[in-house]
Design a protein that fits this description.
The structure is a homodimer. Chain A is mainly α. Chain A contains 8 helices and no strands. In chain A, α1 packs across α2 and α4 crosses α7. The longest helix of chain A has 24 residues. The radius of gyration of chain A is 20 Å and the shape is globular. Chains A and B meet through α5, α7 and α8 of A and α5, α7 and α8 of B. The first copy, chain A, binds a DNA duplex through loops.
Chain lengths: ~210, ~210
DNA sequence: GTCTATATCCAGATAGAC
DNA sequence: GTCTATCTGGATATAGAC
């Protein structure tokens, strides 16, 4: 990468403190909600005064941006870690469960990444790049399962998102909706893969 | 009803002003987001000073409660206005479109009723009763369409909610997801009504 | 019911010494 | 980098006169 060199000890310390601040912020967000975190309380928890945070983040907006980026990067890596097996049902199921688990793991993170209801915050263009990376990878993975049309992907995005939202809203911490995922996968694939098959049959003998 | 009598002129004026405050608050919420409304700005827009609002609402929480109740009451009436035709696909389609339209009509209202991400606000028990009324009516309507099992209803709640959320998040003001509703209805009914039919066939000749 | 005045509390951000 | 001190601005809510 351009400009990347061995970090000095000072830079390492800086990065470590920055990470500590992020960790504490996620903890606080779990307690009070992602929209209600305050720089004062974050500073208190890391043992600093509130203005000192500005040596690590230029603003609260910048802190949200770092969290947004971190969340999307984690999601990207978890998606990459799923090796496609070739079986569409199995792959879609594993991807869906991973994504549902990721969202259930942290309500504030889910809200930050996908709901975007935090007063005054919108991701910067730079932070948004991390989100795009995940979207692109997911799109490729879904394509490989035979979901080649935009409309098929749109519907699947809605289905899975719906299960996740219903889970978070109506049974947080439980599994009443998450456990319907296999059934929803079957319903979806039953409808759309037969559609693809029908088209394939028309064109050529597979 | 108990204790209900003809309202005096004073009571009528009070109710009218209260409604005007609510109207202005919805307008403001459209502009700044439901979480960012302020009593000062609401008062300014109705031509009052901020403390005067307390003659109409006991607190900001109380104002949110009135909005929550109003939204759910509207939704209840719109649901009631849909006359069941007997055709499951048609009825589910009309219900779904109405519900999608209701949510698309007002993002703040949708967030207040279904997302519950407003810092510091949770509906009071009294306001929540309006939500329960709508849920009960919807459940009865879905039952009449042959969706008798809890799991079927859970899945449908997720599917429709997913379409609505994807629409709001990814294409606000458009129809990229809303227009998939007929297809999603067919996918859902294809999967679950055949399941019911199969059970019905086992039990008796229909 | 409406007003002025104010209590009380909180937030994010900046200046400048060390 | 971290601190103290402060700026600036916002919020909800209440007291009490009229």
């Amino acid at each position: 990468m351009i400009g990347e060199t061995t970090p000095t000890r000072r830079q390492e310390r800086h990065a470590a403190t920055r990470q500590q601040i992020l960790d504490v912020t996620w903890e606080l967000a779990e307690e009070v909600g992602i929209a209600s975190i305050s720089l004062r309380e974050i500073a208190r928890r890391v043992g600093m005064r509130q203005p000192s945070l500005y040596s690590y983040f230029a603003s609260k907006h910048d802190l949200y941006d770092a969290m947004f980026k971190q969340g999307n990067d984690e999601l990207f890596e978890m998606t990459q870690a799923i090796e496609p097996s070739g079986d569409a049902r199995d792959d879609l199921l594993r991807f869906s469960r991973m994504f549902a688990e990721f969202n259930a793991d942290s309500a504030p993170r889910s809200q930050l990444l996908f709901l975007r209801t935090i007063p005054g915050y919108e991701p910067s263009a730079e932070a948004y790049e991390s989100a795009v990376k995940f979207y692109d990878l997911s799109r490729d993975r879904l394509r490989a399962l035979g979901l080649t049309k935009q409309r098929q992907m749109d519907v699947w995005v809605a289905m899975l998102g719906g299960v996740i939202q219903a889970q978070a809203a109506n049974d947080p911490g439980g599994d009443r909706w998450v456990r319907t995922i296999p059934e929803v996968v079957d319903m979806f694939l039953g409808h759309y893969l037969s559609e693809s098959d029908a088209n394939a049959k028309k064109g050529r003998t597979k």
